[in-house]
Structure formats: C-alpha cells, structure tokens
Amino acid sequence: xxxxxxxxxxxxxxxxxxxxxxxxxxxxxxxxxxxxxxxxxxxxxxxxxxxxxxxxxxxxxxxxxxxxxxxxxxxxxxxxxxxxxxxxxxxxxxxxxxxxxxxxxxxxxxxxxxxxxxxxxxxxxxxxxxxxxxxxxxxxxxxxxxxxxxxxxxxxxxxxxxxxxxxxxxxxxxxxxxxxxxxxxxxxxxxxxxxxxxxxxxxxxxxxxxxxxxxxxxxxxxxxxxxxxxxxxxxxxxxxxxxxxxxxxxxxxxxxxxxxxxxxxxxxxxxxxxxxxxxxxxxxxxxxxxxxxxxxxxxxxxxxxxxxxxxxxxxxxxxxxxxxxxxxxxxxxxxxxxxxxxxxxxxxxxxxxxxxxxxxxxxxxxxxxxxxxxxxxxxxxxxxxxxxxxxxxxxxxxxxxx
Length: 402
What we know:
Blueprint: E1 6-9, H1 13-26, E2 32-35, H2 41-48, E3 55-59, H3 64-77, E4 82-87, H4 92-101, E5 105-108, H5 113-126, E6 139-145, H6 152-162, E7 171-175, H7 183-187, H8 195-200, H9 207-213, E8 215-217, E9 220-223, H10 239-248, E10 251-255, H11 262-269, E11 273-278, H12 282-297, E12 305-312, H13 320-327, E13 331-336, H14 339-348, H15 357-370, H16 372-401
Parallel strand pairs: 1-2, 1-3, 3-4, 4-5, 6-10, 6-11, 7-9, 7-10, 11-12, 12-13
Antiparallel strand pairs: 8-9
Helix pairs in contact: 2-3, 3-4, 6-15, 15-16
C-alpha cells in the first residue's frame, strides 16, 4: 500500500476545480481523498484512520470559521500532516490565524502551478509543521487561572525557574496581566518599564532596547506588568512582541491574569501551550467548565490546552478520576498542596525549594513540558514524515524536469 496520500477538504466547487488538476499534474500517482464539505471531528477521524495523510489542502475561503475548526481538529488528530490553507485572496489576518493554528503553508486564489511548486519546495526543505501551533524559535507557554486565587502566578513564576535545570539558557518570564500582575511582588524585583512599553515599541525592538525593558533574577529575564492597573480594553496585538521573544529566548513562560477577554485570547492563540490552572474544589471546577468552553469559542485549539490541578489534596474536593470524568478531559498534571513551602518562598522572594513536594512537582511538570520524551517523539515523527514527503516531492521534481 502506498504510504503517501493527500487529503483535499474543499466545499467550493470552483476552488476544487482549480486545485484538483494541479494536484493531478504535479503530484502524480499519489492517492487523493476529496471531501466536499467541512467534516466534524468524528467524520475527520474516520477519514484519517490508521494512515494519516502526508499532505492536506484545506479550503479556508468558503467558510472561515468552519475551516479554522477543521484545521484545529486535523492538527489534533494527525499532527504530522502538513496542512496547506487555500485562501480566497491576500488576507493577512486569516493567513496569520492559519499559521498560528498549525498550517504549514498557504495558497491564494487564483491557483496556479508556480504557487504550488513554490509551496512544495518550501515544505520539502523545512519539513513538517510541529503541529499544535509550533511557530519556530522558542517555545511559548501561557499560564491561565480559571478564577482568582488558584495559584497560577506562583506556578508560572516557579515553572520559569525550572527551565534552567532542564538545560535551557535563555529564559523569559513575562507577566502580561494588565490589571493585577503580581510577579514583581512575588519575586521582589522592580523595573521602570513594563510590557506596555514593549508593546508601544514593538516595531523597533532590538536586543539593546530589550535589555532595558526587562529585569533579571535567578538567571531568568522578567518582563513585568505595569505598576498601575491599565485594563485590557485597548491593548494592541501582542503577536509582534511574542514573536520577538521567540527569537531571543528558548523558553517563554507567560503569566496571564484572567481567562476572559480579547487580550487573553490573543496571547493564548499566539502560544504553543496553554496551562489552565484550577483546584479540585467545586467552584473552581465549575469555572473550569466555563473557561474551557470560552477558549474553544475564541478559537483556541483544544489540543494546546493542558489542565493543571493546583493545591491538590485528597482531603478536600474531588479526586483526579472524578475531575476527569466531570470535565471530559485529561488532567495533565497535579500539583500538591504545600502551604508552608509556598509561604516561605513568598516571604523570601525566592523560588520554592525543589526539595519540597511543590518543588518536586514543578520539576516534573517542567520535564513533561520540555520533554526529553516529547522531543524524541517529535524528531522521530519528523524523520518519518520527511522521508514520506521527500519521496513524494522527488516524483514531482522528476515530472517537472522531464
């Protein structure tokens, strides 16, 4: 059986009429499956099956919302598939959204051979998208509480301090809470500048300017929130600053103050992973249900959201199995309740000791996220997919040469 295959999802007959002949001409002898509507996740899972497509052309022009939903589902079901978004024209916002969601490339109508050749060349050179929104450069992890007093800021700050132990050298902790950021207080550090200054200078950021904007502690750069609450109604797009950080750091941990609003949605969308922090108490779990539904409505891929249960105690609240059943989602990590260790670190303005139960749990969380196992799996998948698509592209090159 041929292991190379192409999936085309296109609800527009005219777009399909342009695309199908190009695929047939330039990618000959490769099995093609065509779906002429936007499938739901269940139907898509049946199509993907045990042989995920090497390449998928996804129509984003017919219905933007449906297209984004299918893109998110396909990334979750088959992260090794290279997805090419097919757009009706030059729409920068939609292009950016598709790339953030995990698309590897895009085509613009009217479709032509030159475009397809260029896309195939880039795909063969760069290898597959990492899936789940990997953008290249450093990894961005946003930490979001489902409600106040879940301990998300403490978790974010201490997680950032763990990256050095994992072997990363360039680390940033960014407090992007515009109304009640607490990292300055938790870490006992000060700066004359905040992330608002970074946003206002997004177009002119360079390494020298950046050094003046951040403070440092424990070998970690920290971008603080403003001293005076600013609200989040008119904040500009955070993407240029986040993209700058990706190129300057290996690991970026973002502390977000609340789960709602356009600012949170924009930062979460630009992140590779979202840690949703709750506790095992009933009010927090009810809030978790609402927040997860809201993130999905805002277009945040479910595959990038990781549920972390903080201050977990079997004596209070629900156990892990019950939480997973109630929320219909897997608990990614559990952080035990360790009041004394947290309070001691808070008074001293230092990271929580790694000898404590909380500290050990954060070490384990960092390992899960950074992951030796995760990296090995991605490399293996990349090799497999590169090999598959390399053969596919070779046949295309031979065709063009002849």
